[in-house]
Amino acid sequence: MTALGIERSTPPTRPDPPATWTARTLAVLGDSTAVGIGDPKLGGGWRGFGPLLAAALGAEEHNVSVNGARLADVRAVQLPRALAVRPDAAVLIAGMNDTLRSDFDPEAMRADLTDIVTSLRAVGTEVVLVRFHDHARVFRMPASLRRALRTRIDRLNAVIEAVVADTGAAHLDLDAMPGAYETTTWSVDRLHPSELGHRMLAKAFAEQLVGRGCVQPAPVSLVCEGGLRVGPLAHLAWLVVKGIPWLCKRGGDLVPYALGIMLRGHREPPCGQLAADPVARP
């Protein structure tokens, strides 16, 4: 109350901005997307979002990801390697390989992911997870299989959301990322990001870390210039050289399982329920 009898309102308080910090080391954990598949280098091998993100942060990258890795693999093999360098920041992309297997177990996946995140945060690492998009909107498949896979992805995302809520980790929602469903975002196989897609990931991951106070000395460019451009003939070559052999190799596990989840699709638990699938373990 003032001398004139008029009460002045107190201006609303704003939360303090996060303290700034520098990412000197960046760990990249996960599966084939984390490896960089989809963004081929002219001299051979893969680049991916990891080096692009590290360059933007001015960090040294330690990529411990492995093609085909599941969350249990990340916990058992990749996590100790990442902890050894005590990274300032870490990005994890994993879980999709779990959705394609008959022993899909959301409870076990939640335990694995929780341990990964809490172990990294215990050494001072800022962790960014990924919430997955609808793969069926990019990779065409029969409607029944699309519904079954969508249910699996929803349950995987429920695991990720629960761990984010429990641990306070940052996360990137691929479903809401601008351009996520554009064809130019995806490589020839429609399963992995293209060079542009990896650049978009690097930019989005940087934004997540900046939101947590990380300093970003340089921007991430979305101009594709370093990767190998893929034309129509490359699509045909991929189908003959990679696609068909991959299908034959995985047929013993993936094809029978795909038929199984199509038949069981109506019995899958609702989205967000983390109970394991009612299938026999191999």
From TrEMBL:
InterPro entries linked to this entry: GDSL_Rv0518-like (IPR053140), SGNH_hydro (IPR013830), SGNH_hydro_sf (IPR036514)
Top-level taxonomic group: Bacteria
Domain SGNH hydrolase-type esterase positions: 28-199
Annotated protein name in UniProt: Lysophospholipase L1
